[in-house]
Design goal:
Number of helices: 21
Structural class: alpha/beta
CATH topology of the domain at 348-571: Rossmann fold
Oligomer: single chain
Radius of gyration: 26 Å
Strand order of the largest sheet: 9-14-13-12-10-11
Strand content: 15-25%
Length: 718
Amino acid sequence: MKEQPVYLDESLSFEERAKDLVSRMTLEEKVSQMLFNAPAIPRLGIPSYNWWNEALHGVARAGVATVFPQAIGLAATFDEELLEEVADVIATEARAKFNMHQEFNDTDIYKGLTFWAPNVNIFRDPRWGRGHETYGEDPYLSARLGVRFIQGLQGHDENYLKVAACAKHFAVHSGPEDLRHSFDAVVSTQDLYETYLPAFRACVQEAKVEAVMGAYNRTNGEPCCGSDLLLKQILRGEWQFDGHVVSDCWAIRDFHEHHKVTANSIESVALAVNQGCDLNCGNIFIFLLQALEAGLVTEEQITQAVIRLFTTRMKLGLFDEKEQVPFSSIGYAEVNSARMQELNRKAARESLVLLKNQNGMLPLDKSKIKTIGVIGPNANNRRALVGNYEGTASRYITVSEGIQDYLGEDVRVFYSEGCHLYKDKMSGLGADNDRIAEVKGVCKESDVVVVCLGLDAGLEGEEGDVGNQYASGDKQDLRLPGIQEKVLKTVYESGKPVVLVVMSGSALAIGWADEHIPAILQGWYPGSQGGRVIAEALFGEFSPEGKLPVTFYNTTEELPEFTDYAMKNRTYRYMPGDALYPFGYGLSYTDFTIENVQVDTEEITEAGIQVSATLRNDGKLAGGEVLQIYVKVEQDGAPNPQLKAFQKVHLQPQEERHLMLHLPVEAFGLYDEEGKRRLQKGNYTVYVGSSQPDSRSYSLTGKKTAEFNCVSTLEKEV
C-alpha cells in the first residue's frame, strides 16, 4: 500500500504540510507558483489556481453577486458590527461561487478564494480617484472597520479560513493616479507612523490578515513592493507578519521602467523577492530563474515564498477532503438570496448622510404631494449605484426607479436627465444645455423636485479604468462636473421645494447648494438597491444615520498640493479652518440626547480611561446614532482632536442606552520622529458627543460635546 504524502496528512500544521509539498517541487515549478495565475502541477496533485480576486463591497468581476454600497459608504455607517456582517456575507457568496466554479472546472481569474480587499489607504486628499475604495481619512476609523471587514471575510473557524483577505496598498498610497508608477511619496517618520501605518498595523496584528499588497509608488525612495523599510523592517520585523505579500499588478516592472531603481527585469524581481514579496500580480517573476543564476537571489528565498503561498492555500482547505472543510457545502443558491438583499438594503440605509434639512423639509409627506420631479444625470444612472471593483447585480434600482416604485400610482413622477454627467450637452448635434427647457417644464409640473447630481466611477476611479474622463481617474477639482450646478440653480429658481441627492465616492465642494438648497442627502455609491433605499429615506420610512468618514472642504484652493504627502493642513486632524461639512457629521430625522457623561478618572494611567454616557432617542422616529470620543493632546504642534473611540447604537423613540467605551493609554500617545508612540506628561482633553468638537459641527448640529480635562504624570513609550 502506497504511503500517503506528508502534505496530505491533515493532522499536521498547514505550514508543515506546505513545506513538505514545496520540497517535492523542482525549481522551475516553485517559480511558476509565484505568479498570480499559478499553473497546475499534475504529478503532485496541485490544481491550477488564480490568486487574483476582488471583494471591496461584494464579490467582483465574476458574474452575479450582491453589490453592497461602495467601501466609502460602508465607512459612513460607523458600524463595526455591520462591516463584519457584510464581509461574512461576501465570504459566503465567495465560497458559493467558488464551489460552483470548481464543479465545472473553472479556475479562471476572479474565481478563487484569495480576495485583494480591503483597501485601508488613508483618503488624505479628496481629489484621489480611488478614495471611494477606502474607509475615509481617519486612521482609527479605517483600522476599526478594516479589522472587522477582514474578520468577516476570513471567518472564525478554528481550522480554516473562509476566504483569505488582503490589506492594500502598503503603504503611503493615495494618488495621483497618473504618476503612481513613477511617483515617490516622501513622508516624515512621524506622519508615516501616525497616519499611514495604523490601519495596516491593526489589520496585521489584530485581524491576522492573510496577505498584504504592496503599492505602486515609492515611499521615501524605495519602491513599495521592494521596500526594506516597509516589508522587512516594519511588516515582518516590527509587526511579525507571517502571511504572504503580493505585488500590485505589474508594479515590479515599474522598478526598472519607471522608478529607475534597477536596471532590468532580473534585478527588479531579485529586489522584490529579497525584500519579502512572495507573489507577482503580473508575469515578471519568470525572470527569477535568471536572477538565481546571476546570484541575485537564493533558492532558499524562493522556497520560503512558495511555502508562504501554499500555507495560505492549505488554510483555505484546498488540499483537504471536502467533508473536512465546513465551507465546501455552501451552495450556489446562497448567492444574491433574499437574506443577502435585505442586508444590502440595511447597509445602504445606514450609509446615507443627511447633510442639511432646513425647517424639517425631509421626510417628504407622500399624502401632500400630487406630482414630483426627479432631475439629474445620476437620477437614473446605474453606474452611480455601484462604484468600482463591482460585481453584477441581478437587479439595479436607480433613484428615479426607486421613487417611481415607492409612489406607485398615487403620485405622478416627472423625470429629466437634466444634463450630461460632465459634458455641456446631451445630444451631439444639440446646443449647449440642451435639456434646460425640459428641466423647467418638469419643475413647472411638480410640487417638489428631487435633483440627483454628483459623480460615478467613470469620473473617479483607478488609472486605466474604462471611461475615466479626467486626470486618469483623479478629480481636477471639487466642483460638480460639467453644467450640473447650472441645472441645480435653474431648479432652485423655479421656486419649487428642492431636495438635492449627491451620489459620489468623495467630498464635493457644494457650497452654493449648502447656502440655497433646503435639504441635502449624501448617497455615496449606495449599491444595487440604493435607489429604493434613497426613495424610502426621502419619504421617511427610516431616518438617515450615516456620518461623514471624510471632510467636505469649501474649495480645492485650501488644500495643499496633491503630490504633498505631509499631513499638515490635511483632513480634520490637521486642517486649520472650518470645513463645509466636517468629518463625523451627519443629521437625523429624530433627536438624540447624550447625558450623564462621565470618565472614571481624570488621571491617565496604564489602564487608560473608561468613558460612560447615556444615549437617548427623544424624537418620534427610530434611528441610529454614533457616540464619538475624541482626544486632544494639549501641546504645541499636536493634531486637532482625534477620533479614538466610537459606538453605533439604534434606538426606538424614547429608548435609552447606557454605554461604556474604553480609551486605552495608547489613545493618548503621539508618534515622534523616531516612529515611537509616546505618552507625554501634561494635559489632555477628552471630548464626548455625536460629532467632532469643532465650531462648525456645533453650528450645524446645535449640540456641544462634553469635555473633560485629563492629566498624565507618566512619560513613556506606549
